[in-house]
Amino acid sequence: MGGDGRAGRTLVRARNLVKRFGDFTAVDGIEFDLHGGETFGLLGPNGAGKTTTMRMLSCVSAPSGGELRILDRDPAREQTRIRERLGICPQADNLDLDLTVVENITTYARYFGMSRGRARARAAELLEFARLEDRAGDRVQSLSGGMKRRLTIARSLANEPDIVLLDEPTTGLDPQARHLLWERLFRLKQRGTTLVISTHYMEEAEQLCDRLVIMDGGRIAAEGSPRALIETHSSPEVVELRFGYDAADTYAGKLDGIGDRVDPLADRVLVYARDGDAVVNEVHRRGLQPASVLVRRSTLEDVFLRLTGRALVE
């Protein structure tokens, strides 16, 4: 599960990558590189094109246009060779319910030509990594959702892949299961495993990704490390002002000129600034009396909402 000597090399190259379904363009000319040993994120709201992009990277769906190279190969002609070197964790668990936990891994490993002995050894190693060694002989249906997700990820590592693709790896998990899975993924990252993660969880992207793209409407709205994106598209601090039961937008005009940007929401007003305490002092100097004040650091969620908007996407 460690690095494979590909650290720093370009493992995926996408240029003007397009995917159409009839008249609908799901991915519209995106470009990025994936380097060995990094954790790369695809962050975006529902319908942004993340899963479609993951399917192209998985060699499941052929691009409609543009250039895609994976492990120095053309997926249009060498998809079998590429898939042998990929670990794929789909959005929905697709474990074999008729097999035991350990059999799900050993059977999958055998598809890649491993001997029975090597498959058993690999399964033991992966079950320990996933913290499922005490459930090896259990049927899959007896596992919790978090355990099934960890098993799906462990199985995706059976062939010792060069790249592991994880599509929405923690969707539907409770907070405890999500944090345990993050800890397992962070261990993979520490070992130099190359990961591609699609997610709509800001904290997940901020904690795990070395670099990411924010997608919206099939296009890339921004690219960079989480810290660089925050520094470029937001301010160092955010002040959250709540005004009780009064409509927050009635106060927005009274905050003109305070900070870098004022964003009125239904229940509070956000003021983006370099110095949050200075904003609070100015709010009080103007005679405003918010019911509560919170000064916090700017996060990836602030960047995400600024670039993609706050409208609900179904």
From TrEMBL:
- Enzyme superclass (EC): translocase
Q: Which GO terms describe its molecular function?
A: ABC-type xenobiotic transporter activity; ATP binding; ATP hydrolysis activity
Q: Which InterPro entries match?
A: AAA+_ATPase, ABC_transporter-like_ATP-bd, ABC_transporter-like_CS, ABC_transporter_ATP-binding, P-loop_NTPase
The parts of the chain that form a coiled coil are none
How is this protein situated with respect to the membrane?
Peripheral membrane protein
- Identify the EC number(s): 7.6.2.2
**GO CC aspect terms:** plasma membrane
Q: Which PROSITE patterns match?
A: ABC_TRANSPORTER_1, ABC_TRANSPORTER_2
Spell out the subcellular localization from the entry: Cell membrane
Q: Which UniProt keywords apply?
A: Antibiotic resistance, ATP-binding, Cell membrane, Membrane, Nucleotide-binding, Translocase, Transport
Q: Per the UniProt entry, what is one GO biological process?
A: response to antibiotic
Where the protein is mainly located, per its record? Answer: membrane
User: Residue ranges of the ABC transporter domain?
Assistant: 12-242
Family under the similarity heading: Belongs to the ABC transporter superfamily. Drug exporter-1 (DrugE1) (TC 3.A.1.105) family.
Name of the molecule in the record = ABC-type xenobiotic transporter
**Where does this protein come from, organism-wise?**
Streptomyces uncialis
